[in-house]
């Protein structure tokens, strides 16, 4: 059964989040007070509602109590964010994610019940910095506070060698979980197969060990 997720506030971050969740198979309720934004997103989500997101009474009437997750995506509007988080928790939503523009706003939203705070601009900056410093990285994903998932190209000195020779776990505390080459992603990894220049590795490692790649 698909998850039911409400995204409240459809700025650039909220709209992209809602559309991406829908593409991944979630039932998405998109909410904003701007009718033009609602019209633009209506064909890319399950439901799109024009609602005054600063009004508790208005938010209480849109069925948040049926949602598995609510995303309060109004990072620049403290009042609307507080209202969305409070109403969602009052109506028993099990998991509420809130976008915050800074740590002070994040602390306030945590106090009133948000289960997770995200700082999109900060996270984008960190991800960009890592890619610039480590040019073999293709993508970076946080798993939790200490672990990350990387999609990366082999370092030049790795090409032509296999995973047994490279001893990546010993040298970098890195676990290779999948390999992609010739446009095919495989979870089965032949440790004797030499890496090619176009090979892509999907690896899990401790964030503390990222400096070893610089």
Overview of the molecule:
The model has no long low-confidence stretch (mean pLDDT 86). This protein has helices at 12-23, 35-41, 56-60, 78-90, 103-111, 120-133, 163-166, 168-172; strands at residues 4-8, 27-32, 47-50, 69-72, 95-99, 116-118, 137-142, 147-152, 174-181, 184-186, 200-206. The chain has 214 residues and is of the alpha/beta class. It is elongated, with a radius of gyration of 21 Å. β9 (174-181) and β10 form a beta hairpin. The longest helix has 14 residues, at 120-133. A six-stranded parallel beta sheet has the order 3-2-1-4-5-6, with helices on both faces. Strands 7-8-11-9-10 form a five-stranded antiparallel beta sheet. The chain has eight helices and eleven strands.
Write the layout of secondary structure elements.
Elements lengths: L3 E5 L3 H12 L3 E6 L2 H7 L5 E4 L5 H5 L8 E4 L5 H13 L4 E5 L3 H9 L4 E3 L1 H14 L3 E6 L4 E6 L10 H4 L1 H5 L1 E8 L2 E3 L13 E7 L8
Parallel strand pairs: 1-2, 1-4, 2-3, 4-5, 5-6
Antiparallel strand pairs: 7-8, 8-11, 9-10, 9-11
Helix content: 25-40%
The major sheet is characterized as:
6 strands, parallel
Distance between the termini: 43 Å
Strand content: 25-35%
Radius of gyration: 21 Å
Quaternary: single chain
Enumerate the spans where pLDDT stays under 50 for 5 or more consecutive residues: none
Number of strands: 11
Shape: elongated
Q: Helix tally?
A: 8
The helix/strand class is: alpha/beta
Average pLDDT reading: 86
**What's the helix-strand series?**
EHEHEHEHEHEHEEHHEEE
Biggest sheet, spatial arrangement of strands:
3-2-1-4-5-6
